[in-house]
Amino acid sequence: MRKLAKAVAVTSVVALALTGCGRDEPTEPGAEGEEAAEAFPADSLIGVSLPQKTSENWVLAEKLFNDGLSEAGFEADVQFANAGVSEQQNQIQSMVTKGAKVIVVGAIDGSQLGSQLEAAKDAGAVVLAYDRLVKETEACDYYVAYDNFKVGELQGQALLDGMAAKKPKGPYNIELFAGSPDDANAQVFFDGAMSVLQPKIDDGTVVVKSGQTAFNQVVTQGWKAENAQKRMDTLMTSSYTSAELDGVLSPNDTLARAVMLSVKDAGKPNPIVTGQDSEVESVKSIMAGEQYSTINKDTRALVADTIKMVQALQKGQNPPPGINDTKQYNNGVKVVPAQLLTPVIVTKANAKEAYANDPTLLAIVNAAG
């Protein structure tokens, strides 16, 4: 399988969108100079259905969508589905009933929303998958996200680089963690990382002492820290009572911190640990020389580009400008046209540069000296 997302003023959101992420200039629909007719009123209801609050970035997205859509003149209906899939299904159905013209979906389980999204399409709404691809349905028009396979590649390479810097000669003992199996991105992150790590496993440079290398062996249900810590506790007892643990592939920052706590509780030296999301506590940990790396996927830019897409659709630009991938994101039924942003690997060495446009994280970096 191949490449299958801190509070600021809305003006900053728009500015980020305009600076972009190196995408090609889009081609406007229709004949040259021709303006498309508005597809729906400029003050229409826009529904945003977000998953559970499992990371700082989802919480930030809620505020950014509320502020950004309102500033753009839309009526915003932004909701979290903290009670699970059934709540998200009900929320989307409610948005359809209220007449939402666009429904933005950050799915808990992208394979369980088909009926609700089909109802949205039947009602004339445009469906945008946000950060996580919606699966097994024709009722998904566009996808806006960071390049998640690239995220995995960056994590896998960071793990190798970090271990080599700490211990120039292998072999290296590592363990693998993946995200929640109901999140479409989890497999993509893992596949990207394994595209880098598997050759090193095959040639013996890297050894997974537990033998757990398949995705379904290393998943973390619900992206919950306690589930990752419990599994790491078991691994430390079963495989590392005498052996050294050199590195851990962690798909995000929350799980990275849980893994490091488990290793610390076992009385072992801290291994090289990857992450993702640039959470405040993990950036502090990186600057303290604990967690090795994270991924910067600026939520401000992702929300800003999503709102730009909504504005383009409102003006009748369908497909909207910014679509830069029409081949890679097959949801099992169709290839969903995607707008991809570029993720950035962050270590202590490049943190100041990586967070130059993020006042909150830059302050943490500068405070660390």
How does this model look, in words?
The protein is of the alpha/beta class. The protein has 2 domains: 176 residues, Response regulator (Rossmann fold, 3-Layer(aba) Sandwich); 165 residues, Rossmann fold (3-Layer(aba) Sandwich). It is 42% helix and 14% strand. The chain has 13 helices and 12 strands. The longest helix has 19 residues. 50% of the residues are buried. The N terminus is likely disordered.
Which descriptors would you attach to this protein?
13 helices; elongated; 6-stranded parallel beta sheet; 14% strand; Rossmann fold; disordered N terminus; 369 residues; 4-stranded parallel beta sheet; alpha/beta
What number is the mean pLDDT?
A: 91
Helix content: 40-55%
CATH class of the largest domain: Alpha Beta
Based on CA atoms alone, the radius of gyration comes out at 21 Å
The amount of beta strand, in percent, is: 5-15%
Q: Can you tell me the CATH superfamily of the largest domain?
A: Response regulator
Count up the helices.
13
CATH topology of the largest domain: Rossmann fold
CATH architecture of the largest domain: 3-Layer(aba) Sandwich
How many structural domains does the protein architecture include?
2
In whole angstroms, how far apart are the ends?
Answer: 42 Å
> Order of helices and strands, N to C?
HEHEHEHEEHEHEHHEHEHEHEEHH
The side-by-side strand order for the widest beta sheet comes to 2-1-3-4-5-11
Let me know the largest β-sheet.
Answer: 6 strands, parallel
Assign the structural class, choosing from mainly alpha, mainly beta, alpha/beta, alpha+beta, or little secondary structure: alpha/beta
